[in-house]
Amino acid sequence: MAGRKNKNYRQLVSDTGKIAEYLFFPHWFWATLIIIVSSLIFWVSLNIAYGSND
């Protein structure tokens, strides 16, 4: 079994654009949105943990 090639290897790692066809917005939009949301959550959690002097 060792050294045996997986027949579906190329099928598993290959993106033929099918995923991108179903996205409502382009991938960079979703990546940016995730970064912004996670940054806001991180910032809020720091304010909860350490408090703000505002």
Automatic annotation (TrEMBL):
Highest taxon above the source species: Bacteria
Keywords per UniProt: Membrane, Transmembrane, Transmembrane helix
Ranges that cross the membrane: 28-50
Name listed for the protein in its UniProt record: Uncharacterized protein
